[in-house]
Automatic annotation (TrEMBL):
<dbReference type="InterPro" id="IPR003593">
    <property type="entry name" value="AAA+_ATPase"/>
</dbReference>
<keyword id="KW-0067">ATP-binding</keyword>
<feature type="domain" description="ABC transporter">
    <location>
        <begin position="2"/>
        <end position="227"/>
    </location>
</feature>
<keyword id="KW-0813">Transport</keyword>
<dbReference type="InterPro" id="IPR003439">
    <property type="entry name" value="ABC_transporter-like_ATP-bd"/>
</dbReference>
<dbReference type="Pfam" id="PF00005">
    <property type="entry name" value="ABC_tran"/>
</dbReference>
<protein>
    <submittedName>
        <fullName>ATP-binding cassette domain-containing protein</fullName>
    </submittedName>
</protein>
<dbReference type="GO" id="GO:0016887">
    <property type="term" value="F:ATP hydrolysis activity"/>
</dbReference>
<dbReference type="InterPro" id="IPR017871">
    <property type="entry name" value="ABC_transporter-like_CS"/>
</dbReference>
<keyword id="KW-0547">Nucleotide-binding</keyword>
<dbReference type="InterPro" id="IPR027417">
    <property type="entry name" value="P-loop_NTPase"/>
</dbReference>
<keyword id="KW-1278">Translocase</keyword>
<dbReference type="GO" id="GO:0005524">
    <property type="term" value="F:ATP binding"/>
</dbReference>
Length: 230
């Protein structure tokens, strides 16, 4: 799905990502993990052109992102952020932004897919709980018929029950054909959801493969011994 070709990102003379070469498959959930400051969110943001490489290229289904219209790319590849970002207005208003030609049947289907009651359509988005708001943002992404999802620590602000509910929802969506690239710093979460892993340390890719392979990566010893909490 996404391919990173010798990608470097620098900010103010400081390396954020260094010579990253990796492929993200067009199926399942690929988790990006590593300590704080490793470059995880930057890697994710490259995938919808919220960031751009200093050198190197990122491709999506074989097409260089530099040659794709950012708005069209973001319609095809949705993003769910760390903090829920509902717009002012009702839940329906939020879905209309993503699908102006949509009707209530389509909106209800998106809410159902995000494990929300369609009766919430007329609810003020600001009145939703944290878990509901994050799932409403997911529904807003789904109603646009995105081909793939980018998720930047989407459950970090949620308590255990809504966090696990969101994870189960994501695993189900991936199984039904929506590939995902998911950033987390939680090793336990990775073990629950990951089909594949990209591990970063200090901006360098130190592992690309299975979750089981992480234990053999010396650069991750401290991170893993802390339970992935750093």
């Amino acid at each position: 799905m996404f391919t990173f070709h010798h990608v470097n990102v620098e900010r103010d003379g400081t390396a954020v990502l260094t010579d990253v070469c990796a492929q993200v498959p067009a199926s399942g959930i690929t988790v990006v993990i590593g300590p704080s400051g490793a470059g995880k969110s930057t890697l994710l943001r490259l995938c919808n052109r919220l960031d751009v490489p200093t050198t190197g290229t990122v491709t999506y289904r074989g097409a260089d992102l530099a040659g794709l219209d950012p708005l069209e790319l973001r319609r095809r590849v949705g993003m769910v952020f760390q903090t829920p970002t509902p717009f002012a207005g009702t839940v329906r208003d939020n879905l209309v932004v993503a699908a102006p030609a949509g009707d209530d049947d389509r909106f209800a289907a998106a809410l159902t897919a995000a494990a929300l009651d369609p009766a919430l359509l007329d609810r003020d988005a600001d009145s939703l709980s944290g878990g509901e708001a994050q799932r409403a943002c997911l529904a807003r992404t789904l109603v646009a018929d995105c081909e793939a999802l980018l998720l930047d620590e989407p459950t970090s602000a949620l308590d255990a029950a809504p966090k696990h509910a969101f994870e189960r929802l994501a695993v189900d969506l991936a199984a039904r054909g929506t590939p995902m690239l998911w950033v987390t710093h939680e090793l336990a979460q990775l073990q629950r959801i990951a089909d594949g892993v990209l591990a970063l340390v200090d901006g360098a890719l130190v592992h690309a493969g299975t979750p089981e392979g992480l234990r053999d990566v010396a650069e991750l010893d401290t991170f893993l011994s802390d339970g992935g909490a750093s």
